[in-house]
Amino acid sequence: MRRPAALLAALIAAVLVLPWLPPVRTAVLTVALVPELLGTPLRPLSVLPEPRLITTTYGTPADRLDVYLPAGAAPGSRLPAVVLELGVHPEPIDHPDIVGVATAIGRLGVVVGVPDSNALRNLQITPAEPAHLVDALLTIATRPEVDPARVGLAGFSAGASIALVAAADPRIADSLPWISAFGGYADAELLLVDVASRTTLSDGQAVAWRPDPGIRRDVLELSLATLGTAAERDRLRQLLSPIVAADDPPHGPSDDALVQLSGDARAMYLLFTAADRASAEQAIATLSRLLRQQLAGISPLTVADGIRAPVFLLHGQPDTAIPVAHAGLLARAIGPEVARLTVFGQFGHAQPGQGGLDIDDAGDVWELSLYLRDIVAAALE
Fold it and tell me: What percent of the chain has pLDDT over 90?
């Protein structure tokens, strides 16, 4: 009789204890999180209490920061946290998609910070932006509910690149516990060449690539924003907008247009009208030293050796906003700090599952699950 009783007691103990062991808890929470982030009708985390939203500010000049506090969070709770960097031209931070993601993460018991950025909303990326993101992270880290040693970064698209540059900031480089970068670029000059020439590199060779029309337009506007005068911006926009909007790649510059331009405006015109990748690279080389320094200041490759946190990289092979080749460049430059590199075979740059899911997406769903498992473990274990 003792043996069955002992077995029963062990079984009861296992049922009660196992779900709270870190690896098991991580697996359960990951399984619940995946359908939430894929935007499926299934919302397993909805059974957990909803986090409380408060709005504050961060940085100078001050920008809005939404903070999602898990239910029961109180001073001294020492909760883990994550700051979400949304990138250029993002949806408003109170958009339902963003609120949904932040709420789902908050239900896991993680404080979530979602910073707004006036510059990014206006299609401006400057070397000051990564430091501004660090300001947001430090604002979250000083909250009384948060463990300052457990505040991670998760960036999306250009926001992933900004987050990687921020990770090397001396204020956080030695204390950042982890960083997730989804769909980021490695080098701003390289991305300009990719988008303008509509090519990317594969094993060192230029191959055709079809960037999304919206990305082409945004990259043009980001480039124009660096010019000194409104007259220069307007003149160049008038010349380049039809070329950038056309489905066919450019065929080379017009001599009549070139005589109207000088300096960086001329270099940009040559870039966006380049008939091939080599011509686009030559145009980049003629940009002013100041502008090239600014591009370097928002390029993760320039600070890769200063990133000391574990890095989780995620990119889509069919990405039409930032070529997947950038993920490989980042992985090689960051080196041993890369904890995981995941490349989707079906999911592109947009939110995974946004267009619905089918059987062909099963492999990507599995890879996303493994990726999220590692992130959840980094945040909670």
Answer: 75
Burial letters 33-49, b for 16+ CB under 10 A, else e = bbbbbbbeeeebbeebe
* Residues 309 and 82: beta-carbon distance below 8 Å: no
117: number of Cβ within 10 Å: 25
Q: Looking at residue 345, what DSSP letter applies?
A: S
Q: Token pair of 41, please?
A: 């009708």
Which residue ranges form the domains of the chain, and what is each CATH number? 24-186+304-380 (3.40.50.1820), 188-295 (no CATH)
CA angle, 97 then 343 then 347, to 5°: 45
pLDDT at site 22 = 67
352: closest CA among 37, 86, 42, 36?
37
Give the tens place of pLDDT for each residue, 4-58. 555 545 444 444 444 455 677 788 888 888 888 888 888 888 888 999 999 999 9
DSSP state of 117: -
The backbone torsions φ and ψ at residue 81, rounded to the nearest 5 degrees and listed phi first, read -145, 160
Amino acid at 108: L
